[in-house]
Amino acid sequence: MYILFAILIFGFLIFIHELGHFLAAKASHVQVNEFSICMGPKLLQKQIGETKYTLRLLPIGGYCAMEGEDEECDNPRAFSSAPWWKRLVILVSGSFMNFLTGFVVMALLLGLTSTAFRTPVVTGFMDGCTLNGEGGLMEGDEFYSINGSRVYLFSDFSMLTSRQSGTTYDLVVIRDGEKVALNDFEMEKHEFTDENGNTQLLYGMNFADTEPANFGSVMKYAWYNCLDFTRMVWYGLSDLVTGAVGVKDMSGPVGIVSVISETGKEAETTSEGVENVLYLGAFIAVNLAVMNLLPIPALDGGRVFFLLVNTLFTAITKKKINPKYEGYVHGAGMVLLLGFMAFITVKDILQLVG
Questions:
Q1: Within 13 Å, how many C-alpha atoms sit on residue 43's CB side?
Q2: CB neighbours (10 Å) of residue 184?
Q3: What tens digit of pLDDT does each residue of 253-297 get?
Q4: Which one from 18, 67, 69, 326 is the annotated catalytic residue?
Q5: 194-226 pLDDT per residue, tens
Q6: Which phi and psi angles does 269 have, rounded to 5°?
Q7: Which of 180, 192, 206, 203 has its CA nearest to residue 125?
Q8: Is residue 215 within 8 Å of residue 271, measured between CB atoms?
Q9: DSSP 8-state secondary structure symbol assigned to residue 248
């Protein structure tokens, strides 16, 4: 059931992404020749007006093919004939729809399942804690940022502190309604024993403050979760560049479907499993939004990059860059991208078999 659920999530996110391009193109009076869900051989096809709607075999993408998308065209309704700002809107609309989907799913999940939200507010200190006192933290302090990164959610505190190997942090807390900076603040874990006699390494702070769940707080924390998802994508990319993680840690559609399935099956109840899968679906939606806007050839971000460069070049020189060169770059990028996706898919299958 969860495997089918995961496949449906992927299909829906692909559909909603291409729908964003499609609706923006139609609203901009740009001619759409084909609207396709998935890639590869055609399974279904229907012509409605000027647009051909197709469903294809391989669930690895989709496309909204517009007239004059990769070449100059005399058609006044061609993509290349539209003003640059309309083309920009069309290109980013797919990612916008994915991000909006992630936000709506998170808002629904939080609205249906939450009664209160835990906040990063210090409500007390354990005996022996070294972080409070003059020049240190105080009861009622709300963590605003750690090393320049915003603390949106309670879970961000542990996530941001764990990304640093040292024990000195630049903190900003909200105290009595004002921001207070605690630069080069020494924050080290010590052994604390709980009421059950268990010893743990802790900072020695208590976080017991909550915010009631209402329409306003649900919208706020849905937005915060989406911002957190976006930051996690960037952290993942930076870890990949720095070598903190490798290609072996990456997953494609097959691996993600497996993770979603395992997440659902490990839940204690079906309702909890569905909630966990939907949470992952929201994360994937935001992930797709961010990844598609990276300035990589064949992705929307690559096309946005070329559009902005060409617009600037035209404004300065009064000449246009021949679109065939951009087409060559995107074609090569697509080949490399499909090859990389095939490699990741084979890796995921081998891991599943193993």
A1: 10
A2: 8
A3: 677 777 777 777 777 787 888 888 889 889 999 999 999 999 888
A4: 18
A5: 777 778 888 989 998 999 999 999 999 999 999
A6: -130, 160
A7: 206
A8: no
A9: G
Q: Which residues of 136-155 are buried (b: 16+ CB within 10 A; e: fewer)?
A: bbeeebbbbbbeeebbbbbe
Burial class (CB in 10 A: 0-12, 13-18, 19+), 162: exposed
Contact indicator for 171, 143 with CB cutoff of 8 Å: yes
**The most confident of 64-73, 104-113, 124-133, 336-345, by mean pLDDT:** 104-113
Q: Strand 116-118 and strand 142-146: pairing?
A: unpaired
Q: Is 272 a catalytic residue?
A: no
3-state secondary structure of 177: coil
List C-alpha distances in Å: 71 to 79, 101, 166, 311, 325: 9, 32, 53, 15, 9
Cα(58)–Cα(142) distance, integer angstroms: 48
Count of Cβ atoms closer than 10 Å to residue 30 Cβ: 25
Q: Retrieve residue 5's tokens.
A: 């659920």
What's the farthest any 2 CA atoms get from each other in the chain? 79
